Amino acid sequence: MIVASRNYCKFYFDSLLFGMIPNPSNQILALIERLSRLSEAEDWANDLNPAQMAALRYLAGANRFSRAPSHVAAFSGSTRGTVSQTLRALARKGLVTETRSQTDRRSISYTVTEAGLNVSQSGKAMTQAIAGLTPDQKQAVQEGLSDVLRTLLATRGGKPFGLCHQCRHHEKRGDGGYCRLLAVNLVQAEANQICHEQEPA
Questions:
Q1: What is the distance between the alpha carbons of residues 194 and 79, in angstroms, rounded to a whole number?
Q2: Which uninterrupted H or E stretch holds 171?
C-alpha cells in the first residue's frame, strides 16, 4: 500500500511538472534547471552574487592565456559589458587583480588573489551531493552532460573551454608540458587548467 502511494505521488508530481505523458528530455532539462537554481542560491555568500561567484570560479581554474573579459563572457554565455561590470566588482572587493598588456593597453587579464582563491574554493552542498554518487554514476552523469554541452556549443558556435592536457595541441614534456598551438612551455599545474584554445584530442 505504501509503495503504491509513493508511486502515485511520483506520477502526480511528474504529471504536474511535465504534463500527463512525461517526456524524458523535458524531465532532464527540468532537473538541470532546478539544480542550477539550487546551486546559485548557495552563491549568495561572501558579499557576492551568482554571476560574480561563477566568474571568480572560472578565473581560478583558467590558465594564463584565458583570463580576459572576452574569455569569461564566452565561457559563461554572457555579454562582454555584463562581464566587465562583474570583473570590476570582483576587483573592488579585492578578489581579483587587473593587469593590462604592456604592448596593447586595451588588452586586460585578471588574476585571482589569495582571498579570491579561498572564496572560490568554498565548499558547496552540490559538491557533496555529487561526491556521494558511485563511480559509475559520476562517469555516466559527466559523459551525458558533456555530450549535451558539446551539442549545444556546436549549435551556437561556442568554444569547448576544456582542460589543457586533454587538448590535441598539448604535449607532455618532463614534469610540465608544451603547447604546440601557442609554442610555449607549460608548468605542471597548467595541464589541469581551463584553456579557451582547447581542442579535444
A1: 20
A2: strand 170-173
- Do 153 and 70 share a structural domain? yes
User: How do residues 135-168 score in pLDDT, each as one tens digit?
Assistant: 999 999 999 999 999 999 999 888 889 999 999 9
Let me know whether 17 and 96 are in one domain: no
Distances (CA, A) of 130 to 33, 67, 139, 148, 184: 16, 27, 11, 18, 36
Domain that holds residue 63: 50-160
Question: All 3 cell numbers of residue 64?
Answer: 594564463
Query: CA 61 to CA 189: how far, in whole Å?
Result: 10
Based on the fold, state whether residues 144 and 175 are members of the same structural domain. no
pTM metric for this prediction: 0.81
Q: Are residues 97 and 72 in the same domain?
A: yes
Residues 96-139 have pLDDT tens digits of 999 987 767 678 999 999 999 999 988 788 999 999 999 999 99
The length of the chain is 201
